[in-house]
Write the structure tokens for this entry.
Amino acid sequence: RHRSRGRSTGGGGGAQSISTASRGSKSSFNDHRSRGSGDNRSRKSSHTTDDNRSHNKRRGQRRGHGKKHSSSSRSRSEEQQWEGSTTPLDSAASTNKSPSSTSSLHMAPIPNEAKRALARIRGGEALPRESVVSSVVRKLVSRIDRRRRMMMVANAGNDDVDVDGEEDGNSGCCVAILSSPLNHDVVVVGDDNGDVVGGANIREAGAGEGKTTIAALTCIRGDIRTRYHQGIAWLDCGGGDGSISEPSSPSPPPLLPLHRNFDTYSKALSDICRQIGVRPQQLRLSPVVRTPGEDETVSELRIAVHMREARARMGKLLTSLQQRKSKPRGSKDGNSQQHQQQHTSVLIVLDDVTSPLDIEWFQFRRNGNHTDGEQLNDLLITSRLSTLLGNTTNNRRQIIIPITVPPLDTKEAIRLLLTESDLPGNHPSLAASHTNRVARSLVKACLFHPLTIKFAGRWLGLKRATSGGQKGIDEILGEIHDAISGKKQGGNTNGSNNTAQEAAGGHHATAVDVLYSLLHRAMSPLVKGQETKIVRLCFVALIAVFYGDDTTTTTSSLASDISTTSSLVPMEIATDFFLNVVENERDILSKEDTFFQSNGRQASKLVPEILGALGVFNITKHTTLVEGSSERNESSIQIDHDVIRQFSRRIIHEDTTMSHLLLEQQRQQQQQQQRQRHYHPIKRWNEAYVQSYFAQKTKYLWDDIQPDRSRKYALKNMPRHMINAEMFIDVEELLLRNESFIRGRFWSLGWTEGTRVHVNDVEEFCRRLQLRQEEQEQGSIANSNNNGGDGSSGSSSSSKLVDACKQLEVVLMEEVARESGGPNGRCSTLEAGRCLHEISVSLAKFKLWHDAARFCDSCVELVESNLGSSELVASLLHNSSVMHAEANEYDEAEKKIGDCLDMRVKTCGTESILYVRALCQLGDILSVSSDYSAAESCFNKSIGILKVMPAQYHLDFGVALFKLGRNQHRRGGYLDEAMHCYEDALEFEKEELGPRHSFVFNILMHMAEILLDKEDMQQAKHTFKEALDVLSGGAEASSELKSKVAIAEGKLLSIEGQSDECVDKYQFALDLLKKHTPAKKRKIAQINALIGAELEKKGKYPEAECFYEECVGTIKSVFGPFHLDLAETLVNLSGVKSALGEVKDSAAPNCEHHTQATKCLEEAIDIQKSRLGDCEECAITLSIFGAHLKSIGAYERAELAYNDAVRILQALEGDQELSLADALLGLADLMTVRSKYSDAMEYYSQCQEIQESVFGQKHDDIASTLYAMGLAKHAEGSYSHALILFAKSLVMRVELHGEAHPSVGDTYDILGFVEAKTGNLDTALRRLTEALKIRKTLGDQLKEADTLNNIGNLHRERNEFELALQRHDECMNIRISVLGRNDESVADTLMALGNVNSDMEKPQEALSHYREGPKDASVASVFQKVGMVQYRAGNLESGRLFLEQAVEIYRQGGNENESKLITPLFIIGTIHNTLLEAEEAQRVWNDAFEMSKKIGEQSNPEVHRVLTQLLHAH
């Protein structure tokens, strides 16, 4: 579709000049002298005819070998295409078709990256750096030197090094070209923590010293290429994103750091294969599909296992390659083996290593044996790190041989200065340049740093060109020197404060500090004697917009981290961009900048020329084929050195002369708009690019078949620029509705890469909308009017993401159905499946599980139609199951994982780790669906397989144990088994994940909950605290993890009795889940149940009822009406409704709440019987049901429920004895209530017998049973037997708990009560006094009040009325202070006080207490009785008052008390008649008569007859 011919016209960072040959190896360079960066055609022309024929013969043999296995490896090859490991051969390996095709000496081809590094050097004149290059070569080649270093390590005490085993140097070596000097000649990889030592910023420290150039010079040497005849592979490890660049780009972006990134690693291995002449398909890498929603650390550890397998495969491949190719031409077999043992024949260059831990992944050992296998390749490393320390996968300590890059000597430095300034070596002013004082002083001021000298030379050339010959070389050199030295000394004549010394923080200035000072001066050309700002402004804008980190450039700080990704920016885009940037700031520039004042906006057109001349960026020219056969010349710019990008940070942070352009403009914009916090210069800069592009290209179609480079750049990056410019309406139109744009992306970037880029843009767009919506909700910003609105109104960001993905799917399916195909051909179903998988993973990130599952199912269908049954399809089915489960679609999830298991049985067998993971997923689904037995079977089978698997799968072992424990915990009745599983899982996961991982927190949380269920409060409290300590001081947690932390804190507060604070924590956790993870329905229901339980404990039954009912509704909506969690919640809800029924009206047991409670329990029993049959859980619920029915007076139904529970438990096998004892105890209590005392005692005896068989002769449960038996005997009236049983209970409780225990106080209290009934008042008083003492000691005020009330009654019986009044007063004071004056127990005390005063013949005081008491029928009955007593005693007035009070209370009770009014009214009338108050008597008797007639005279016929007679008589 287009041709690309590239040539570089700019200089690169850290560049010296190319050395055509080292002096010691002249004969090795005859075939490539002065062509180190040329193309391969020159080398091919030097081959002999015989060499070509032998090469073609060997290539034919390889083709035959490939045909032999082509049919058997089709499926795996296509799966590798899924992973991207078979991407088209890019320019990095386009010439490496055979390592033996270079010469008859089997010399390896020169890596293309080495050519590019050398091609960036200006002029092509060599800077040999012979001493450094020769040192590197010696370290790589010399076997004697390597053996000496091994001896040094062994003498240092390292027993792991086998010196004798390193004969002939056949173990491979690792040479590191480092920046700063090292204290020792040997550095060892294998420290415990693997941390990088050194405080310098690795982006800047040691930059520009020429390490990459030295590595490239090493790789072009003939002796190196001959030694490593099988191939030299070059990888850029400079911290990029790991993506593979398009073949037309001059340089692929960096592949590393790895950080357990399998995609990056597999691409790196494929690149190595291509560079050494091996097809990547021969690696036979299995596809790796990450599980959505999986913990990041767990995922990384599992990916690391796949990476180790891939490294082992690479080792086996190199072993096979060495065995095939190690035999020299014409040698015999024996000599071949000897040649194989002499040295390794593959060299891997890792350029710009930023993480020492990445090194181990490129140490490939014989047959893939990384325990004790021989290393098959040597490593050449460049790094800005001062040391390289890290862990290796085996226990052997890897030797890293450091090579320090020294500064240039004076002669080399001046030579480089001449080269970069375009001055000829025989220039008259510098004929003796190495002795020139000014030049020597200048390179010294540059600290002999290559990159700094390069820019000094470029600035020299620019100043020479712009001076028009009016200044001499010495004068210009002096100006440059003065500028640098003035900065170093802190002199500042221009108002800028970023001197090298200050940049170094007051310490000794580094070469990079000097470089930045030089760049600052060079980018501030003097116009009319004043420094200008336009060049710096355009430079910072260029870096921020085109080379910035998209995730941080729109934050409130301009000083965001700059990405190291190297982008090609078309020149026409950059030129128009600079024009718009300058135009936007013209108000300030027109006042302050003399450059702008002289040239106006046209000054921006000079910026690319200035920056290009300074070497800040390279300008690369290309020829692109356009419509027809015409060609178009295009140019692109590229900043390929990270130090240059970092310079923009210095300007932002430290250049005060630019702060008003970068920050003051923000203040001006705030005056015009209300969006004060969000305005940012980067927004305007991105908007400048977007506007300039559309102004030029608006007439072109996005899906043009042959787009130019500007359009290609826009297709890839336009949405991100729009997002950074906050042009949300335009972004929405482009991403969600513009099919032409989506199609253009597919055609320009490819199907998979186009989908990935598009999905990433939509994700960023939605994240930005979410952020703005949250800030608007918080009132931090006002509604904006940017570009017609911010696009955040209307549908939510989640719906926009789904709409965009659907539109992407539509265009993709059109491409699949296209018959003729687009510019890239027709999209295959396999490629379309991969695209749909990218979409599903994106939706899963946003927790849009339902839509994610739909896309994943479509992906499975497409891929399966292409591959059939394969591991790739099985992995996709596994992901589909996970997504359906997260969407609460458990039936579909179970179906998908079942299909996955069936497929994995065929593809990898039942003993593989993939089968185990699928089995655990099935167990998870079954457990959540409350099919606990089936889930247990899955987990046990998984654990059985894992027991015989290698230690690398201990992580999965711990996960399986945890899931089994959680299943047993949910199941109920298996707490000990669950605890054992958790303890084993904790041991595994602490070892695999470390002690401070969130998974460790989860395990400890579940262990603490089991301890709570066992009522071991102290240990539970300790375990909750241990769980919270795991996450203390850690990274920012997710919303789901924050909710778990809040739950743990809430349970701690609940244990400590702080219910209000506990509920607040639970509510916080609930709000988090509802807002951020609303699909976690089961977890939301659980938190609702927790809040309900805590409120129930506090007696807040209406609030508890609401939370329980919400929990019930959630469970029913997700799992249907037969889930076991629903049954448990219904049981809890029934308890609250029963309590509400008692509170509402204790005299109406069949109230609405009691009926609802009954229905809840009946529904729970139906669920348990239908799901579990006759089981212990069902029997326990039946026992609870019996207790509820007993409380509402439904005794016959209660007896049926208890008998059913007993029947089930007696029929079960196992340890259900305690549940049976509880059922028998409830049945016995019921018999007591029904006055069936003999039956009650029989059930009590059976219960006691079971308890003694389980606990022995002494246990608190046995003491409680004896206490209940005493109550039954007391109710029967058999007080002597009751006292015996209470005494036995007392003795046992004292022995178990001591005197100061609540149960002991209760027993003393009942003993005193029963003793009083038997007439033993003195003994009763002693017992009650003991009870009072214990209850005071324990601080149980309500029970203390109860005992005081009993003592008061006892004193009344003994006619000790004053003491009785004293005790009742004490009782009343306590009850009022704790419960309030309106509580029923306070009324009881008032009645007792009234009774005592009545006994003391103090009617007025008695009446006063009675009136303060409650106004119910029971109180009225007391008034009536007292009135009758007073009437019979002749106290007519007193009797009348009491009776009138009774009538008043009866009347307040309503119609149900009418029958009770007749007698007191009759007596009141009689009293009036006796007192000769005839009219009053007549009135009262008349009321009584009418009441009698109303309810029926048969209710009290004698009173009715007398009333009739009296009324007739009067």
Q: What stands out?
A: The chain is about 65% helix and 5% strand.
